[in-house]
Amino acid sequence: MYQRLRILASPLFILFLVLLLVNDFYLKGAFHNALTGKISDFSGLFIFPIFWSAIFPKRKALIFIATAVLFTFWKSEYSTGLIQWMNPYFGIGRTVDLSDLMALPMIGLAWLYTKSESRTAIPPAFMLRLSTYLIGMVAMFAFCATTQPRYIQAFEQPQYVLLKHPTLKNFEPYYGFQFYKKDSLLVVKIDYLYSNRPARSDDYNKNKNIQQLDQDVLSIIGDSATRIPFGTITQLTIQTEEGTDSLQFNGGRLDGPLVRTKGNTRVIEGFYKMGLEDATWTLRDSSSNERVVQTFVNGEKTQVKQYSGDKLKSSSKVNTRADTIFNTYVQLAMLTLAVAAMCFLLYRNKRTAIPKSLKLSLLWKLLICFLSPLVVWLFYVGIMLLLMNYDEDIFEAIATAMFIFIAVCPFMFIIVFAFKLAKEIDVLWYCLLFALLLSIFKTYTMLEALSS
């Protein structure tokens, strides 16, 4: 059995596996271009059939053929119905791009690689078993992680762009867009956009996503429409499923008042400044006297008030990006003080225990070393939830747990077997210390992303 698994510990398999992980967890987010999309396809098509044919060697030919067929189906528009059926149960995302099929020759390369006798693997037998099982688990994780859905930027208020279209076609709604024809003009209603996952889902990030909304929409639909020059004022009325929207555009962007009526009731009243909400917005319930008044500054919501008739029911302040950055600095200071407190407690316990130390059996020492990472992970999740900064998806959570085990376990071996524990409570303090240090790193990384 282990002989056929040796390929999972071979250099080229590991190289493409690492490339797939680095691309999905860093390069895509940092660069988000055509190259990063192709890296996942090329790397995945090499390691995927090799991995499964190592597990099921008698089905090798079927696995390689099925990989090619399923990849082609997955990248075509014919798989859309299947993905829509699966989305309520599994978070799956993919982009229809037939140019991805250029990666199909990697399956042939993978087939030749499995036939090659020149590849090397990691000896000896025990290390081979350990490495192949570990690499196998990482490969399974990589296959799942590469299908993570893209972040969806939704819009709380109606969002439109205006394009000039001399040869109008019969547009159908797709990709979060709805199209309305007005003479030689094309009005595009944007329900949502796909974008990179943000450091924080807030109005600042929303504003960043729509800085050049008309240009971005034009590049997405890829049609013969053109942008309208800035300074051209256009007033339109659009009939939608949500109501009748009265709009004003400056060039291709909303600029001026927006009013949505439903029946005889104005359900939304607001003002746009080049696509960004500005000043005060009023949202009414058409079936009652309830209304919500929202205040915006430079496109960022700062306050929300709820009224029942003329009576104020509640009022709440909303953090802007600047407020979030300030609060994150405060959190970093609190975490640093907590680390200092843990270090003081450990130092005090060590000093009061000299020359004695805690006596533990070998079994207990091993249990402490191997179970501590789990405790550290639980502390870390608890701290981040307490700070309202925990937004990891399932794949990031697994990656964090793996990192904690790899980092904490060796340290605990050093502490337990070499440095010695002073008191039983020190196990808890060390776990909390590691969790605090990880929380500081995570919070600082978030602060850098928020400030950039």
Report the biggest beta sheet as strand number plus sense, adding barrel if it closes.
9 strands, antiparallel
> In sequence order, what are the helices and strands, one letter per element?
HHHHHHEEEEEHHEEEEEEEEEEHHHH
How would you sum up the global shape? flat
The average pLDDT is 82
Q: Which structural class should the secondary elements be placed in?
A: alpha+beta
How many beta-strand elements?
A: 15
Task: Please report the number of helical segments.
Answer: 12
CA distance, first residue to last residue: 50 Å
Fraction in helix: 40-55%
Low-confidence stretches: none
- List the quaternary state of the chains: single chain
Transmembrane segments: 7-27, 39-56, 61-78, 98-114, 126-143, 329-347, 367-388, 394-415, 427-447
Keywords: Membrane, Transmembrane, Transmembrane helix
Q: Could you please describe the fold and organization of this structure?
A:
It is a single chain. The mean pLDDT is 82. 50% of the residues lie in helices and 20% in strands. The strands form 3 sheets. Strands 7, 8, 9, 10, 11, 12, 13, 14 and 15 form a 9-stranded antiparallel beta sheet that branches. A 4-stranded antiparallel beta sheet has the order 3-4-2-6, covered by helices on one side. The protein has a two-stranded antiparallel sheet with strand order 1-5. It has 452 residues and is of the alpha+beta class. The chain crosses the membrane at residues 7-27, 39-56, 61-78, 98-114, 126-143, 329-347, 367-388, 394-415, 427-447. Keywords: Membrane, Transmembrane, Transmembrane helix.
